[in-house]
Design a protein that fits this description.
Chain B: Residues 9-31 are annotated as: Disordered. The complex is a heterodimer. By secondary structure, chain A is of the alpha+beta class. Chain A has helices spanning 33-44, 77-108, 117-127; strands at 11-14, 23-29, 49-56, 63-70. Chain A has a four-stranded antiparallel sheet, with helices on one face. The radius of gyration of chain B is 30 Å and the shape is flat. Classes of the chains: A alpha+beta, B alpha+beta. Chains A and B meet through strand 1, helix 1 and helix 2 of A and helix 2, strand 1, helix 3 and helix 7 of B.
């Protein structure tokens, strides 16, 4: 089901025999609590999800087992896909708000040291 | 057949008949909604254009200097903000020396000792690190200007006095990638900035140190030399209203700078239904990147990880569909 040959797979899906498509364990390689915990939080907010959890199988290996169980016949890949989109949106929103806040700050206060000046001029040019 | 406008399911007949018994004078729009929908299902379908429960965090920068940035994030959760903190420290790429060839070393420290110290020197990575490729991804054989920066050092002690070999003796072929401590006097020679050069080794008369090094792009997960932060301070619930910490004697502990209670109060009253709301960050940079660049780069890295996972997931789903069909 998974694998791409030469390249290391980043994401694999493991399903127990006899279970429906609502219960899937995803194996994410090269990941840790950084993505695991935040994805878990966002996916748990989804009403269709019955169970969502992740575990780091062994601290020497950087991979996580991420399990999603849904109810109502929804495929388990759907909450994962939505969770990824939502987390990406949150990051984009924080990035935009941070940049706006930076711009507001640089327009308000004059430059502190001569070294900071080139950066602030650059910022003012961007906002036009 | 009437369909619920929210969840598009056909309306059940059982409740419809029950409703028909009652005579209602007013025609209420609510009849169009599915009567058998549970509240949870209703909310999850109704309030979800892009994000459920509108996870729209707000960011307020409270302080910005050359070395650190203090900001506050609200309307989000502990899991997401903690992930952000982890990314600041371990996944923001910078440039540091990763390959050293020592041509001569007659100092008191052995080769790998000096190599380790040289690797830990922070190099100015602003603007360059985005354009540089990872060495493992580069098409060149060994090193090239696309994926690395070459630095050299040639010091020989000829006087009777002890010669201190510092980071200022490290010379780069790219003037924008230099040791952080060498940067201060370049802009304004008259402005004496309180920044000492990093001491590597001390040489006696007749001892010398000659080496050639390549600096590469990397991030903190691989080795701490690529960590752009000197420290990330992360705080929430400054008055301990959620009792995530239980102090044996609360009066012993100093108040946080973000505390909002009176002078004589020691902790805020216990709030059993509270959740962590406001998160106070103080990102201090070691000098290789500007602090605001660290934050923006971290968010970009997190987004890239998520988009990579999304493409992988769609490939997996397609493979699944193909094998089933």
């Amino acid at each position: 089901m998974a694998g791409e040959g030469e390249k290391k797979p980043v994401l694999e899906m493991v399903q127990a025999d006899g279970a429906d498509e609502g219960c899937v364990t995803f194996v994410l390689h090269d990941e840790d609590h950084t993505l695991g915990n935040s994805l878990r939080y966002l996916i748990m907010k989804n009403g269709d999800v019955d169970f969502c959890g992740y575990t780091i199988t062994h601290p020497s290996e950087s991979k996580i087992n991420f399990r999603i169980q849904t109810r109502g016949g929804v495929a388990a890949t759907e909450p994962l896909r939505r969770g990824l989109n939502e987390l990406s949106d949150v990051c984009q929103h924080v990035l935009n708000t941070f940049q706006v806040s930076l711009r507001v700050r640089s327009e308000q206060s004059p430059p502190v040291s001569c070294r900071e000046e080139p950066a602030i001029n650059g910022l003012i040019l961007i906002c036009g | 057949m009437h369909h619920c406008i929210v969840c598009q399911l056909p309306k059940t007949n059982a409740k419809k008949k029950k409703k028909q018994k009652k005579k209602k004078k007013k025609r209420r729009r609510r009849r169009q909604w599915c009567l058998s929908t549970s509240p949870q299902r209703f909310f999850s379908t109704y309030l979800t254009p892009t994000m459920p429960y509108a996870n729209q965090p707000t960011v307020k920068i409270t302080e910005l200097t050359d070395e650190n940035v203090k900001f506050v994030i609200e309307n989000t959760d502990l899991a997401v903000t903690n992930s952000l903190r982890r990314v600041f420290m371990s996944e923001v790429p910078t440039i540091a020396i990763d390959w050293i060839q020592i041509d001569a070393n007659s100092s008191v420290l052995h080769d790998e000792f000096i190599a380790h110290r040289v690797g830990l020197i922070p190099l100015t990575s602003d603007d360059i690190v985005d354009k540089l490729q990872y060495s493992r991804d580069c098409t060149c054989d060994d090193f090239c200007p696309e994926c690395s920066v070459e630095l050299t050092m040639d010091v020989r002690c000829t006087e009777d006095q002890t010669r201190h070999v510092t980071s200022r003796d490290l010379l780069s072929n790219n003037p924008r990638v230099i040791p952080v401590t060498s940067r201060s006097r370049d802009n304004d020679p008259n402005d004496y900035v309180e920044q000492d050069d990093i001491l590597l080794v001390k040489l006696r008369k007749g001892q010398e140190l000659r080496l050639r090094a390549y600096a590469k792009k990397g991030f903190g997960k691989e080795h701490a030399k690529w960590n752009p932060t000197a420290g990330v301070s992360f705080e929430y619930d400054p008055d301990n209203a959620l009792r995530h910490t239980v102090y044996p004697r609360p009066e012993e502990w100093p108040k946080s700078e973000y505390s909002e209670i009176e002078e004589d109060e020691v902790q805020a009253p216990y709030d059993p239904n509270g959740k962590p709301e406001r998160f106070f960050y103080n990102v201090e940079s070691c000098g290789s990147l500007r602090p605001e660049t660290i934050v923006m780069s971290a968010l970009a890295v997190l987004k890239k990880k998520l988009s990579d996972l999304q493409t992988q997931l769609s490939h997996e789903i397609q493979n699944d569909v193909l094998t089933i069909n």
